[in-house]
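Please decode residue identities from the backbone states below.
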């Protein structure tokens, strides 16, 4: 088959070919590494590649296949890891010059489980400093570009993960999501970004694990591959109390369930009051709702009043960042971008009372979403209010939506993603079409708390009905 067909083959299909000996792990990993090196000058989506280690593990996997030894569910499949996520003996810089030589002693839980399942790490993908923004750039590596248009951002903060996945470099990517950091770049790059329910994948790096609103997540090109990753990464771990006591699910079976959405009720809202949305996004969203109806779902609007969440999220999130990173910034301010330093400085204005009031508001938001989902199976909204922003976009500058300059990039561009980090509900971004500029647009579906399997089923049915995931960016001249 043509090389591009191999690189865009779903991981679930690659696994079958490996088991049938139609493809060797060494051949697959060699091809993926070559593609990564070929595309890196254009996309700049990796901070680190580990070819020697990856090929060594591929040879070990090949031995297991040839000898008929027991195989893991992901045996021989290549994957990437966002550079916020600890990887044993592989540099994890957190996207910052301050930690460019940091080498963890062990994998974080999700990565350890993927490797135990036979997956092969090929490298670390780019992220802004400590995952601190929706635009993937940093003094450490520069800017990461969107495979669909090199003059546009890939989103963030898991921008490298989404760009590499969209470019066919590896079928599986570990990302993170603290306010939309998996779903934003997924929407920008036309891939699947899944933020699971809190606790489904144990979080071993959160310092405030009780108040945690960040997630270690899968990014893939198709929903079935997300389910495959999630199945391996999930399960209780004593380091994360939210994971303890959760029952297991068969996520791949849910994603492959051929039944339609008859009997499902979907509540939708285009945007919270006062938040504009681009014409092409509104049109694509209406078309997506018709697809859901065509799949048998009942589709009804809900009132977005009371969901202006950015100030609440920022009071919590930036206070956490200030507590974690202020010492580093004060010791070596020259190592950090002005954008990162400005965000850390802004949290000085948030008092202890302000922080706790934001946490009280987080509880209110949880109850509001719960109330909606008491009478519905899913919520639907656009992931972003417009397509990918220009590569040179500044976090603190206005963004353009249909010729109108709008302040507050976070609240204006992704008003719906931060909400689900604070409430803990599962949410997925998947392609819902292309904008007037030819760039991908994303649909966000939200499921009931711990209803991850049902959400994957609905996302898979939408994907199959639309086939937007079959489009590929043109990467070579």
């Amino acid at each position: 088959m043509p090389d591009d067909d191999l690189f865009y083959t779903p991981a679930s299909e690659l696994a079958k070919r490996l088991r049938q000996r139609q493809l060797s792990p060494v051949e697959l990993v060699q091809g993926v590494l070559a593609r990564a090196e070929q595309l890196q000058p254009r996309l700049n989506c990796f901070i680190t590649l580990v070819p020697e280690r990856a090929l060594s593990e591929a040879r070990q996997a090949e031995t297991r296949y040839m000898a008929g030894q027991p195989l893991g569910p992901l045996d021989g499949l290549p994957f990437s890891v966002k550079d916020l996520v600890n990887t044993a003996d592989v540099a994890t810089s957190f996207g910052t010059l301050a930690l460019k030589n940091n080498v963890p002693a062990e994998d974080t839980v999700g990565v350890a489980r993927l490797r135990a399942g036979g997956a092969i790490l090929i490298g670390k993908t780019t992220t802004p400093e400590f995952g601190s923004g929706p635009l993937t750039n940093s003094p450490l590596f520069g800017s990461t570009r969107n495979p669909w248009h090199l003059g546009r951002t890939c989103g963030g903060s898991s921008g490298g993960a989404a760009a590499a996945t969209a470019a066919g470099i590896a079928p599986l990517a570990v990302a993170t999501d603290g306010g939309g950091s998996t779903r934003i770049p997924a929407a920008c790059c036309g891939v699947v970004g899944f933020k699971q329910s809190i606790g489904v994948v144990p979080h071993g790096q959160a310092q405030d694990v009780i108040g945690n609103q960040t997630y270690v997540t899968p990014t893939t090109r198709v929903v079935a591959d997300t389910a495959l990753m999630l199945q391996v990464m999930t399960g209780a771990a004593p380091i994360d109390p939210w994971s303890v006591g959760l029952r297991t699910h068969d996520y791949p079976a849910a994603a492959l369930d051929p039944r339609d959405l008859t009997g499902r009720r979907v509540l939708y809202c285009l945007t919270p009051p006062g938040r504009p949305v681009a014409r092409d996004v509104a049109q694509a969203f209406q078309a997506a709702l018709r697809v859901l109806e065509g799949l048998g779902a009942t589709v009804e609007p809900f009132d977005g009043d009371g969901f202006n969440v950015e100030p609440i999220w920022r009071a919590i999130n930036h206070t956490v960042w200030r507590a974690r990173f202020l010492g580093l910034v004060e010791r070596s301010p020259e190592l950090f971008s002005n954008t990162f330093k400005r965000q850390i400085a802004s949290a000085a204005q948030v008092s202890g009372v302000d922080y706790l009031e934001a946490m009280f508001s987080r509880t209110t938001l949880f109850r509001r979403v719960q109330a909606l989902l008491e009478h519905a199976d899913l919520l639907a909204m656009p992931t972003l209010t417009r397509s990918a922003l220009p590569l040179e976009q500044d976090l603190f500058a206005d963004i353009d939506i249909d010729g109108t300059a709008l302040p507050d990039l976070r609240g204006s561009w992704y008003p719906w993603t931060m909400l689900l980090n604070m409430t803990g509900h599962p949410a997925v971004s998947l392609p819902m079409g292309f904008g007037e500029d030819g760039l991908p647009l994303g649909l966000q579906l939200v499921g009931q708390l711990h209803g991850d399997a049902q959400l994957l089923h609905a996302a898979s049915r939408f994907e199959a009905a639309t086939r937007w995931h079959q489009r590929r960016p043109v990467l070579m001249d």
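Observation: The first strand starts at residue 46 and ends at 49.
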